[in-house]
């Protein structure tokens, strides 16, 4: 399981970086989303994966006697997912507006010459 | 010491924003609420700083979860002073915006988003939890995205794409760093981390993790190889927005660096040298950019980059005196950079352009306002006794002491280029006659007096604070001295958060 996740994280980061380096705006967006997902799975993995041991203390005991599944990484990922959802939604709307204005998907076309500055 | 006042500056701006959302599309009401809210924010911050000076570091455990298990808010001297300065800059921008932002933008929620942004800044300064810091950063960037795109001109959107992509990337780096750090130590509380990180066997891994933070904060604060988004986006939004961004957003990156590198990753030899190299290169590239730009706001954007280098250098030396220089410069820079962009906004109102070749004759037409502006420009250049002069002394002294001659040279270069760029701007914009064939559209002269006051008062307010800092340098130096004591010796911070050890 861990090995599989490690490979998956590597793939997501690699694909994310590759996509960000492309000139297309849609690919930039996809790259950012890949990186975000990769980071989330990374937190999940590094929090330690423990199967079938919920973080609930038995009534008769005062403290944990055993390894337990850490709930904090899941709380962190949940927060990160919500945040990246909002950012992605905003980014999609922004890129759609830019596409409507510039009529191009190429990031290199986003340079209005300096003389037109006001 | 536990104290509930810590969250005052956060809540004031939250409630201000909510009230303004209730008054949606009522722009006059929103302006009044914004002014009152920002003013209350300043009062609450003064009270907070006063309490921290009297009682030492204050903490607040959210929902009474004991540290290190819950989220903890910490107000030490650095945080509370930065909150005060942010509130002052926020008040100035809020007053300026009531005239400097057009009605169309206000109708689409400029003011609520502005207050959410200030709330995010205050939260980022006050939190003591590294993941919570990430969340505040996201509050800041999502508000700044909206402010940057509000109005939807083509240039604004072009700048916003670059700004958005790089800032989301920075957050991802930061988040990755947090993930690895949690994996290594199992804690998110910064005070707890500073204890646990010493016990980790594999210090090499810690070094690699710290680079994630360095890159993440480096992008946000516009350090050398990562600054390109800044000059290509800061000249696009309205001046009031650019003032908030230029004055405050990059400085949060510096604050985060100060906090993380003083508490968690104490810089080793390699990191220090890396930071020094980055500082020198940041100053050089920022200066070169400032030399060729003839648009006022593009010039200011490069000056921001140049001066970020000064502060990074102070962190790189990481001695008490160097940190005093960095922190003092940070305070000065927030006030002056905010003011610079507000000045750019006033010039725009007077002439309808920010290109130096179409500008001129402002001194002849508005001598009193020009003299006020000159004062701010002098402070930026660092002419004694204004606030820009004192921090540089510390930086020079310490870099000479530690024999970082490249950094000394960069400091001299940076200061000289700032002087040159500002002197050129002064003669082009204020002294030169209006160029022939340019008919300047002056929106400022026909304005009613009340609106003129709303534009000039914020500049005067920030200039007055600059002079106050300059003339009372002794008081500020004592404060900065205590702050850098707290940064170099973090035991008081750790003790305040975690309670007495053993």
Automatic annotation (TrEMBL), chain A:
<dbReference type="Pfam" id="PF00420">
    <property type="entry name" value="Oxidored_q2"/>
</dbReference>
<protein>
    <submittedName>
        <fullName>Na+/H+ antiporter subunit C</fullName>
    </submittedName>
</protein>
<feature type="transmembrane region" description="Helical">
    <location>
        <begin position="6"/>
        <end position="21"/>
    </location>
</feature>
<keyword id="KW-1133">Transmembrane helix</keyword>
<keyword id="KW-0472">Membrane</keyword>
<dbReference type="InterPro" id="IPR039428">
    <property type="entry name" value="NUOK/Mnh_C1-like"/>
</dbReference>
<keyword id="KW-1003">Cell membrane</keyword>
<feature type="transmembrane region" description="Helical">
    <location>
        <begin position="72"/>
        <end position="95"/>
    </location>
</feature>
<dbReference type="InterPro" id="IPR050601">
    <property type="entry name" value="CPA3_antiporter_subunitC"/>
</dbReference>
<keyword id="KW-0812">Transmembrane</keyword>
<feature type="transmembrane region" description="Helical">
    <location>
        <begin position="28"/>
        <end position="52"/>
    </location>
</feature>
<comment type="similarity">
    <text>Belongs to the CPA3 antiporters (TC 2.A.63) subunit C family.</text>
</comment>
Automatic annotation (TrEMBL), chain B:
<feature type="transmembrane region" description="Helical">
    <location>
        <begin position="299"/>
        <end position="321"/>
    </location>
</feature>
<feature type="transmembrane region" description="Helical">
    <location>
        <begin position="204"/>
        <end position="230"/>
    </location>
</feature>
<dbReference type="Pfam" id="PF00361">
    <property type="entry name" value="Proton_antipo_M"/>
</dbReference>
<feature type="transmembrane region" description="Helical">
    <location>
        <begin position="453"/>
        <end position="471"/>
    </location>
</feature>
<dbReference type="InterPro" id="IPR050586">
    <property type="entry name" value="CPA3_Na-H_Antiporter_D"/>
</dbReference>
<feature type="domain" description="NADH:quinone oxidoreductase/Mrp antiporter transmembrane">
    <location>
        <begin position="129"/>
        <end position="418"/>
    </location>
</feature>
<feature type="transmembrane region" description="Helical">
    <location>
        <begin position="273"/>
        <end position="292"/>
    </location>
</feature>
<keyword id="KW-0472">Membrane</keyword>
<dbReference type="InterPro" id="IPR001750">
    <property type="entry name" value="ND/Mrp_TM"/>
</dbReference>
<keyword id="KW-1133">Transmembrane helix</keyword>
<feature type="transmembrane region" description="Helical">
    <location>
        <begin position="163"/>
        <end position="184"/>
    </location>
</feature>
<feature type="transmembrane region" description="Helical">
    <location>
        <begin position="242"/>
        <end position="267"/>
    </location>
</feature>
<feature type="transmembrane region" description="Helical">
    <location>
        <begin position="31"/>
        <end position="49"/>
    </location>
</feature>
<comment type="similarity">
    <text>Belongs to the CPA3 antiporters (TC 2.A.63) subunit D family.</text>
</comment>
<feature type="transmembrane region" description="Helical">
    <location>
        <begin position="402"/>
        <end position="423"/>
    </location>
</feature>
<feature type="transmembrane region" description="Helical">
    <location>
        <begin position="69"/>
        <end position="95"/>
    </location>
</feature>
<feature type="transmembrane region" description="Helical">
    <location>
        <begin position="6"/>
        <end position="24"/>
    </location>
</feature>
<feature type="transmembrane region" description="Helical">
    <location>
        <begin position="369"/>
        <end position="390"/>
    </location>
</feature>
<feature type="transmembrane region" description="Helical">
    <location>
        <begin position="107"/>
        <end position="127"/>
    </location>
</feature>
<protein>
    <submittedName>
        <fullName>Na+/H+ antiporter subunit D</fullName>
    </submittedName>
</protein>
<feature type="transmembrane region" description="Helical">
    <location>
        <begin position="133"/>
        <end position="151"/>
    </location>
</feature>
<feature type="transmembrane region" description="Helical">
    <location>
        <begin position="327"/>
        <end position="348"/>
    </location>
</feature>
């Amino acid at each position: 399981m861990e090995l599989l996740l490690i490979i998956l994280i590597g793939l997501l980061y690699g694909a994310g970086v590759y996509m960000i380096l492309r000139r297309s705006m849609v690919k930039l967006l996809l790259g950012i989303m890949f990186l975000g997902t990769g980071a989330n799975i990374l937190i999940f993995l590094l929090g330690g994966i423990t199967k079938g041991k919920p973080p609930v203390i038995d009534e008769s005991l005062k403290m944990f006697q055993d390894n337990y599944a850490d709930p904090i990484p899941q709380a962190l990922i949940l927060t990160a997912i919500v945040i990246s959802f909002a950012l992605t939604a905003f980014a999609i709307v922004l890129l759609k507006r830019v596409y409507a204005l510039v009529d191009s998907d190429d990031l290199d076309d986003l340079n209005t010459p300096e003389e037109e500055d006001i | 010491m536990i104290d509930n006042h810590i969250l005052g500056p956060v809540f004031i701006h939250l409630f201000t924003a909510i009230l303004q959302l209730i008054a949606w599309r009522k722009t006059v009401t929103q302006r009044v609420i914004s002014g009152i809210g920002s003013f209350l924010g300043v009062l609450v911050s003064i009270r907070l700083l006063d309490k921290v000076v009297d009682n030492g570091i204050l903490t607040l455990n959210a929902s009474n979860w004991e540290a290190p298990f819950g989220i903890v808010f910490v107000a030490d001297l650095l945080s509370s002073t930065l909150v005060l300065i942010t509130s002052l800059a926020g008040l100035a921008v809020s007053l300026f915006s009531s005239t400097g932002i057009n009605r169309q933008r206000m109708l689409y929620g400029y003011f609520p988003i502005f207050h959410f942004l200030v709330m995010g800044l205050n939260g980022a300064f006050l939190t003591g939890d590294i993941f919570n810091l990430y969340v505040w950063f996201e509050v800041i960037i999502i508000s700044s995205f909206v402010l940057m795109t509000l109005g939807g001109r083509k240039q604004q959107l072009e700048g916003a794409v670059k700004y958005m992509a790089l800032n989301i990337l920075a957050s991802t780096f930061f988040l990755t760093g947090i993930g690895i750090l949690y994996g290594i130590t199992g804690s998110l509380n910064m005070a707890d981390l500073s204890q646990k990180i010493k016990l980790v066997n594999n210090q090499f891994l810690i070094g690699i993790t710290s680079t994630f933070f360095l890159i993440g904060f480096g992008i946000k604060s516009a350090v050398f190889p990562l600054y390109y988004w800044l000059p290509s986006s800061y000249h696009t939004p309205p001046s009031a927005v650019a003032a908030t961004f230029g004055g405050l957003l990059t400085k949060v990156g510096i604050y985060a660096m100060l906090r993380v590198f003083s508490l968690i990753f104490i810089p080793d030899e390699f990191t220090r040298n890396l930071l020094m190299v980055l500082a020198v290169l940041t100053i050089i590239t920022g200066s070169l950019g400032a030399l060729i730009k003839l648009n006022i706001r593009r010039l200011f954007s490069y000056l921001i980059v140049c001066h970020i280098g000064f502060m990074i250098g102070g962190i790189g030396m990481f001695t008490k005196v160097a940190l005093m220089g960095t922190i003092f410069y940070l305070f000065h820079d927030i006030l002056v950079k905010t003011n610079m962009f507000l000045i750019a906004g006033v010039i725009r109102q007077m002439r309808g352009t920010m290109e130096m070749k179409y500008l001129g004759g402002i001194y002849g037409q508005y001598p009193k306002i020009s003299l006020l502006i000159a004062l701010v420009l002098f402070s930026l250049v660092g002419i004694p006794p204004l606030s820009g002069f004192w921090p540089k002394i510390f930086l020079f002294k310490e870099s000479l002491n530690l024999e970082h001659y490249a950094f000394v040279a960069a400091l001299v270069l940076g200061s000289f280029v700032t002087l040159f760029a500002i002197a050129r701007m002064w003669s082009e914009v204020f002294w030169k006659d209006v160029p022939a064939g340019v008919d300047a559209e002056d929106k400022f002269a026909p304005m009613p007096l009340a609106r003129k006051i709303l534009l000039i008062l914020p500049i005067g307010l920030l200039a007055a604070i600059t002079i106050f800092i300059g003339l009372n340098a002794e008081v500020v130096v004592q404060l900065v001295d205590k702050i850098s004591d707290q940064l170099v010796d973090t035991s008081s911070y750790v003790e305040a958060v975690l309670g007495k050890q053993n």
